[in-house]
Amino acid sequence: MTFGNKEVWSPDFDPIDTNIPVVIHKSHWIVPFEKNRCFTGRETELTQLEKMLFIEDRITKITVSGLGGVGKTSLTIELVYSIREHHKDCSIFWIPVTNFESL
């Protein structure tokens, strides 16, 4: 089916009712790291971060900050891969911030 200049398809598409546009939600993924297959532990922190992200179906953002070498990147990589697995319609954009100017 074509709607405007975009081709749109849905398994629930009814060809008889062509006046109703079908919208397909697609998630986006921009994460420049592979999943760490050796990551273990930190379930408490992962649960807390996920709860902060998914509050009442709102769009939210979080930051993870702290001293160098404490595992912020590893924790966050594990979090985003878990979210990708459990929330298929969620888009994730990794924004590296190494200093204030890079914001």
Structure overview:
- The protein is of the alpha+beta class.
- The protein has one domain (2-102).
- 25% of the residues lie in helices and 8% in strands.
- The protein has two helices and four strands.
- The protein has helices at 43-53, 72-86, and strands at residues 2-3, 6-7, 29-30, 92-93.
- The protein has a two-stranded antiparallel sheet with strand order 1-2. Strands 3-4 form a two-stranded parallel ribbon.
- A hairpin with a 2-residue loop joins strand 1 (2-3) and strand 2.
- The radius of gyration is 19 Å and the shape is globular.
- The chain starts with a strand and ends in a 10-residue tail after the last strand.
- The relative contact order is 0.18.
- Residues 1-8 have low confidence and may be disordered.
Uncertain runs: 1-8
Q: How would you describe the oligomerization state of the chains in this entry?
A: single chain
Helix content: 25-40%
Number of strands: 4
Question: What's the tally of helices?
Answer: 2
End-to-end CA span: 41 Å
Shape: globular
N-to-C SSE string, H for helix and E for strand: EEEHHE
Number of domain units:
1
Structural class: alpha+beta
Biggest beta-sheet profile: 2 strands, antiparallel
Radius of gyration: 19 Å
- Roughly what is the average pLDDT, rounded to an integer? 77
Strand share of the residues? 5-15%
Which strand order do you get reading across the main beta sheet? Answer: 1-2
